[in-house]
Amino acid sequence: MEANGASSRRDFKNKIRICLKEIQETKHWLRMLKAAASDKIQVIGVLSQECQELTLIFQKISNKLNEKIENC
Predict the structure, then answer these.
(1) Sign of CA dihedral 47, 48, 50, 54
(2) In the chain, which residues have pLDDT < 70?
(3) 8 Å CB contact between 50 and 58
(4) So where are the chain's domains?
């Protein structure tokens, strides 16, 4: 939602980059949880998969933005 409210293409691109950074941080915390809460491995696995899917989505958006900038 934050990226959708961006004031410019540059702002949008920056917000997408922030999303990618936040996903990386989330992955870090999920790895920490996996080590600390072995009884929750199944739930953590599902959440890790969601993070991976979000990474792919936001990376694709970022790549498309870079392509548009290069073609202009």
Answers:
(1) positive
(2) 69-70, 72
(3) no
(4) 3-71
